[in-house]
Write a structure and sequence with these properties.
Elements lengths: L4 E5 L3 H12 L4 E5 L2 H8 L8 E5 L7 H11 L4 E6 L4 H6 L6 E4 L4 H18 L9
Parallel strand pairs: 1-2, 1-3, 3-4, 4-5
Helix pairs in contact: 2-3
């Protein structure tokens, strides 16, 4: 099985780049971007359609909710795990049908890795031609 492809979208540059490094050391293909505009541009290229997007809820310009909507409109099979340092459970509950899960910062890496694994399996099972997926 191909390594999970993870896109980290967070305006906290040090957090995002460090998390990408840590995931890459664990056999994941992780890329960090620091705004939703860059994430959406990257997703629209054939070179890097992620299995999982780790998406910060609070960002300037296009926030996590707007980015989530755009990601799902582009490819509804991309799994999204919301990241929040604010613990705003009401917002998370309101979008629970669009996201696989959420995690509150600071991130517990073993927990996040499990969630990424589950998200990757779910997405790949839904892809055309996958066993149990749509053809």
């Amino acid at each position: 099985m191909q390594n999970p492809r993870v896109l980290i979208v967070d305006d906290e540059k040090e957090f995002a780049s460090t998390l990408a490094e840590r995931l890459n050391m664990r056999n994941m293909e992780a890329v960090a971007v620091y705004c939703a505009e860059d994430a959406l541009a990257l997703i629209h290229t054939a070179d890097h359609v992620p299995d999982v997007v780790l998406l910060d809820l609070k960002m300037p310009n296009i926030d996590g909710l707007q980015a989530l909507e755009a990601i799902k409109q582009y490819d509804s099979s991309i799994e999204v795990i919301m990241l929040t340092g604010h613990g705003d459970r009401k917002i998370i509950e309101g979008i629970s049908s669009l996201i696989l899960d959420y995690i509150i910062k600071p991130v517990d890496l073993p927990e996040l890795i499990k969630k990424i694994g589950a998200a990757t399996q779910k997405r790949r099972a839904a892809l055309p031609g996958a066993e149990g997926g749509t053809a």
